[in-house]
Specification:
Oligomer: heterodimer
Radius of gyration of chain B: 19 Å
Distance between the termini of chain A: 43 Å
Strand order of the largest sheet of chain B: 3-2-1-4-5-7-11
CATH architecture of one domain in chain B: 3-Layer(aba) Sandwich
Number of helices of chain B: 11
Helix content of chain A: 40-55%
CATH superfamily of chain A: Glycerol-3-phosphate (1)-acyltransferase
CATH superfamily of one domain in chain B: NAD(P)-binding Rossmann-like Domain
Strand content of chain B: 15-25%
Order of helices and strands of chain B: EHEHEHEHEEHEEHEEHEEHEHHEH
Order of helices and strands of chain A: HHEEHEHEHEHHEEEEHH
Radius of gyration of chain A: 18 Å
Structural class of chain A: alpha/beta
Strand content of chain A: 5-15%
Number of domains of chain A: 1
Shape of chain A: globular
CATH architecture of chain A: 3-Layer(aba) Sandwich
CATH class of chain A: Alpha Beta
Largest sheet of chain B: 7 strands, parallel
Number of strands of chain A: 9
Helix content of chain B: 25-40%
């Protein structure tokens, strides 16, 4: 007899998503991985994002077939929207729609493990802290690494900079080449307009967060999210140079950035509207 | 190699090591040393084990042990595990066993005619733990060199580094095993002391994963290191990785989340009132952030992989 918690989660998931979770659970086994991920976290995570994914942001996703069926892969996406709902929706989208099912390991900023409750919730769902040792382990074990090379600069950018990629770090490109992992560029359109920011308090660094945002509205706007995955980039074949050379890494990262920017521009141009 | 000297032999880990060495027919002699009057159980049943009660904090005793009994027995390998278990053991007397004994033993072993290998049992607790560091700890992970760390930590880091610095300079083959926490009594486990009380306080909002090793796995890892020729540092993980709340639950204890800033005064009051051995300042990092040892190097060079899970009363 399943526990009350499990039955409630089953109701929250619905039959289709419940079957998906059961498949992901088979992949994960029933133990805790070194980063604290557990099948219960996948179940709770997908149940708690269902409303946002299906009804609030009404995620429209294309191109998930570009995600390789197995082996290490880096998904590199743009980042925006004051709070990282885009990361949650991308993580959810991969967990819900990848075929065969794969569990994403989304990278969070290093201050996230300091956040009470959030750190545990994220860890159980498969999120890892963005230290080099952690991401290397994920790639070495052949998992799906989801990164946002803009970092917190992306989510804190002013609305005048929306859909313009900010400083794009190169660590993901170097690791992808080192582990011969393809990079799947991903564009997320919607987040940059979801929550107008009244001000950002750079001097307030709660739990090590780089700034405290002051939103103009109490809740994010129910914009429609559009997630687009591009064809994988085999950086290790495209850039045949010394991995210790910063120029090689910069060039490889710039290629990913250019692809993500092009996908963002194309999606913004062809979308029927912000809410439609 | 078939003749061993084991310090700290009367702990559950020492006994486990002796059991694993005795399973190998090639083991000819084990000289087990401890400070306690009682002897490891293996002494009673196997003629290959001899127990010596020695106060290792005295240099004269160490010299007599190495150039007396060890030479007579033809000891080839030292497995050094002697250290004070309680955080209450502080000051020069504690340091004499935790650090100076290891330093002297290593120096004497370098002069010894038959000793060829030195294995030092170190601790996962020597590593620094913070949000900015990887969860998975390998041999290159930073050590906890904070000057405000309790002596229990400082001594272990100093002893670890003392042995490490001799690696490239000594004729001995040297291995340092930084082992996951063994949740057993009389092993110096802080987590064991934490679970000693019926109510365990946890920092509210945090539930980090903890890696635990069984005494059987730890004894096996030490035995493999004693028999091997592989030099260097090895992180030794256990087979059990669980969140702290689950460890508390399986131990039949009650877990009460309290706001982080209240943890230190609560445990300081408990230590003072109940004379408990658990020191919160020593465990603050790992009660907030997960720590799991990697074990890749130990698997490759020692052939060690964790096999036996820790058994809890409520499993």
């Amino acid at each position: 007899m399943p526990s009350l918690k499990k039955r409630l989660l089953g109701l929250a998931l619905g039959p289709r998503l419940r079957r998906r979770v059961e498949t992901l659970e088979e992949l994960q086994g029933d133990g805790y991985d070194p980063f604290g991920a557990h099948v219960s976290g996948t179940r709770v995570g997908l149940a708690s994002t269902r409303f946002l994914y299906e009804l609030y942001f009404r995620v429209d996703s294309e191109g998930i077939e570009h995600l390789p069926a197995s082996g290490p892969v880096v998904v590199a996406a743009n980042h925006g929207g004051m709070l990282p709902f885009d990361a949650a929706m991308l993580h959810t989208d991969i967990a819900r729609r990848s075929d065969p099912p794969r569990l994403p390991r989304t990278v969070a900023d290093r201050f996230v493990p300091k956040l009470p409750f959030v750190s545990t919730f994220f860890a159980r769902g498969g999120v890892i802290s963005g230290t080099r040792g952690n991401v290397e382990r994920v790639l070495a074990s052949g998992q799906v690494l989801v990164v946002f090379p803009e970092g917190t600069v992306g989510i804190g950018k002013p609305s005048s900079e929306r859909y313009r990629l900010q400083t794009w770090r190169g660590g993901h490109a170097e690791l992808a080449m080192r582990y011969r992992a393809p990079v799947v560029p991903a564009a997320i359109v919607g987040p940059d307009e979801q929550w107008p920011m009244l001000a950002r308090l750079d001097g307030v660094n709660l739990f090590g967060a780089p700034f405290l945002p002051v939103p103009a509205t109490p809740l994010p706007l129910p914009v429609r999210y559009r997630i687009r995955y591009g064809e994988p980039l085999a950086l290790h074949e495209m850039f045949d140079g010394d991995l210790r050379d910063p120029e090689v890494i910069r060039a490889a990262a710039a290629a990913v950035k250019a692809r993500v920017q092009a996908m963002i521009d194309e999606t913004v141009e062809t979308r029927p509207g912000l809410y439609r | 190699m078939s003749r061993y000297l084991i310090t700290g032999a009367t702990t559950p880990i020492g006994e486990s090591l002796i059991r694993h060495l005795l399973r190998d027919d090639a083991t000819a002699r084990i000289l087990a040393v401890g400070a306690e009057p009682y002897r490891p159980r293996a002494v009673e049943v196997d003629g290959r084990v001899r127990y010596e009660r020695v106060d290792l904090t005295r240099e004269r005793n160490l010299r007599e042990l190495l150039f007396g009994a060890c030479r007579t027995e033809g000891v080839e390998v030292i497995v050094d595990m002697a250290s004070h278990r309680s955080v209450r053991s502080t000051g020069q007397k504690a340091r004499a066993l935790n650090v100076l004994e290891t330093r002297r033993l290593l120096a004497l072993a370098e002069e010894h005619p038959t000793i060829r290998r030195f294995v030092y049992r170190s601790y996962a607790e020597v590593h620094d733990v913070s949000a900015a560091l990887p969860v998975l700890i390998d041999e290159a992970h930073p050590l906890n060199l904070r000057p405000d760390a309790p002596q229990w930590i400082r001594d272990r880091v100093e002893a670890d580094l003392t042995v490490c610095t001799r690696m490239a300079m000594s004729d001995l083959s040297i291995a340092v095993l930084r082992c996951a926490e063994c949740l057993a009594p009389r092993t110096g486990s802080q987590l064991h002391d934490y679970l000693d009380s019926r109510v365990c306080f946890r920092p509210m909002g945090y539930d980090p994963v903890v890696n635990l090793i069984s005494d059987d796995d730890l004894g096996r890892a030490l035995a493999l290191a004693a028999r091997s020729d592989a030099d260097g540092i090895f992180t030794i993980p256990g087979a059990t990785t669980l969140p702290l709340s689950e460890i508390v639950r399986r131990s039949g204890r009650t877990s009460i989340p309290v706001p982080g800033p209240a943890m230190a005064p609560l445990y300081a009051a408990r230590r003072a009132a109940l004379r408990s051995n658990f020191d919160y300042s020593l465990n603050r990092g790992r009660l907030h952030f997960g720590v799991v040892l990697s074990g890749d190097r130990a698997a490759e060079l020692l052939g060690y992989r964790p096999e036996v899970s820790v058994t809890f009363p409520y499993d």
